[in-house]
Specification:
The chain has 285 residues and is mostly helical. It has 13 helices and no strands.
Length: 285
């Protein structure tokens, strides 16, 4: 009887341990992937990734501009990339509880730079969309909405920090980070979908399929929903019902495996969007 009770009581501990281990593994993969993404953004902002956004490369190379509209598009996308570099690489400083507790000035000034970069990245992206447009009108609308939400999050995070409403400041900072993840998630989702479904629902050439219309919102709306769930349960201990524990472990493990696959294929393979540039830049291909 006692051994039966011990086995029953050990069950939830094993499931909790597995969930914690999977969570830590996903965090490590995300950290590595975001650092690689940051390196790719640096290369892209410097015009070192051939074939990507010739509009920005024209400005970097000092090529003649045909009109003021073209000049604004060049400057806008360049500003978007430059500020994106800050947004992708500076987040560990802001999210570090140790820096926040022991080095308040570092956290405060990094936050100001980060919020400013969020606004300017949005301004740059929107100016490019208004003067040049994304690859389709539907994409232009979705990307404009994403940029506007990112700008709102940056402004509200700064406003609440200045007013010393730190709970609200932290909530808006979490939303901002969720929006910053969008461009990275966009590339991961497209690669994973192509590989696992063979491009189901994706248009060929200049046509758009159902997935093409879905992805222009799936790369940032779910992020915002997850951020909202995290914010609302920040100070709560969420306990799964016992009958859902093992399904949660299985689902979390599958999601983590898919996430790891997408990060590796996009970042560390010659066919990956980042990998083909990173491997060449760092002597791996």
């Amino acid at each position: 009887m006692n051994s039966t009770r011990m086995r029953l009581s050990a069950g939830p501990d094993i499931r909790q341990y597995l969930l914690g281990w999977i969570g830590r593994a996903i965090q490590a993969i995300a950290l590595a992937g975001l650092l690689a993404f940051g390196a790719y953004i640096v290369l892209r902002a410097a015009g070192a990734t051939p074939g990507n956004f010739e509009q920005w490369r024209a400005l970097v190379d000092g090529l003649p501009m045909q009109s003021a509209q073209v000049w604004v598009a060049n400057l806008g996308i360049g500003l978007h990339f430059a500020m994106g570099t800050i947004l992708v690489l500076a987040w560990p400083i802001l999210l570090s509880s140790r820096i926040r507790a022991r080095h308040r000035a570092v956290h405060r000034w990094t936050g100001r730079v980060y919020a400013t970069a969020g606004v300017l990245a949005g301004v740059g992206g929107l100016s490019f969309i208004l003067t040049h447009g994304a690859y389709t009108r539907a994409a232009s609308i979705a990307f404009a909405a994403w940029g506007a939400v990112m700008m709102l999050c940056a402004i509200m995070a700064f406003v609440h920090a200045r007013a010393k409403r730190f709970d609200r400041h932290r909530a808006w900072a979490i939303r901002l980070f969720a929006m910053v993840l969008g461009s990275w998630v966009f590339d991961l989702e497209i690669r994973a979908w192509k590989d696992l479904t063979g491009g189901l629902g994706m248009g060929a050439g200049n046509t758009s399929g159902p997935f093409d219309y879905a992805i222009i919102y799936l790369f940032f709306v779910p992020n915002l929903l997850v951020a909202e769930c995290f914010i609302r349960n920040l100070h709560k201990r969420v306990a799964l019902p016992r009958h859902l524990a093992w399904p949660a472990v299985a689902g979390f493990a599958m999601a983590g495996g898919l996430f790891a696959y997408a990060v590796v294929t996009v970042t560390a393979t010659p066919s990956g969007k980042y990998g083909k540039h990173l491997l060449q830049a760092f002597g791996g291909g």
